[in-house]
Amino acid sequence: MLEDNVRYFEDYVVGAVHDLGTVSVSESEIIDFARQFDNQLFHVDPTKAQESMYGGIIASGWHTGSMMMSLLATKYLSEKSSLGSPGVKELRWLAPVRPNDVLTVRVTITDARTSSSKPDRGIVISLIEVINQSNVVVMDMTATNFIARKKAK
After folding, report:
1. pLDDT at residue 153, rounded to an integer
2. How confident is the prediction for the chain on average, in pLDDT?
3. What integer pLDDT is reported at residue 151 of this predicted model?
4. Nearest-CA neighbor of 78 among 34, 122, 37?
C-alpha cells in the first residue's frame, strides 16, 4: 500500500496482490442489512434459517459485497485517482457468511492498460476475493476500474 492511499494508474502493477484488512459481521448486522435490502427468511429469521438448507442465519451476498466494498474504497482505490467503474465481469458467492465470521479482502491485479479512447486514464482489472477465518473464499469477483494517470512533469 502506498502512503495516504495516494496512487495513480502507474502504481497498479499487474500481478501485485493487496491484502486490504478484515471486517467481521454480527448476527444483528446480518439481520438489519437483510431486513432493509434482502428480506429472505434465511437472512432475517433465526428460526426459519435453522430449518433452511443453511442451518442458520447467513449474510446476504449483497451484504458481503458491501463489506468488501468498504475495504476496497478505503484501502485500494485512491480518492485522488479513482474515476469509477463500468461494472464487474463476474460475481460469485461461493460459501455462506455466518454471524461472527471474520472476512479478509484480497485483491490481485490481473490487467492494467492505458485507455485507447481517453489517454488520461488507465483501465485496471482485478480479482477480488473475500476469505473467511477458515481460509475459505466466500465471494469473488472480477472488477474493472478507471484510474487517472499521473500528470506529466
Report:
1. 43
2. 95
3. 78
4. 122
Q: Residue 122 corresponds to which cell in the numbers above? A: 488507465
What are the residue ranges in the chain where pLDDT is below 50? 1-2, 153
- Span 64-98, pLDDT tens digits: 999 999 999 999 999 999 999 999 999 999 999 99
- 148 forms beta bridges with 121
Task: Report d(CA 153, CA 141) in Å as an integer.
Answer: 36
**Pseudo-torsion of CA 77, 80, 83, 87, nearest 10°?**
10
CA 9 – CA 80 distance, rounded (Å): 11
* Helices 27-37/61-75 angle, 10° precision: 100
6-148 has CATH 3.10.129.10 classification: yes
- Alpha-carbon gap, residue 9 to 11, rounded angstroms: 5
Give the count of alpha carbons within 13 A of 91, CB side only.
11
Residue with cell 490481485: 108
Query: Which residues does 113 contact at the CB level (< 8 Å), separation at least 6?
Result: 122, 123
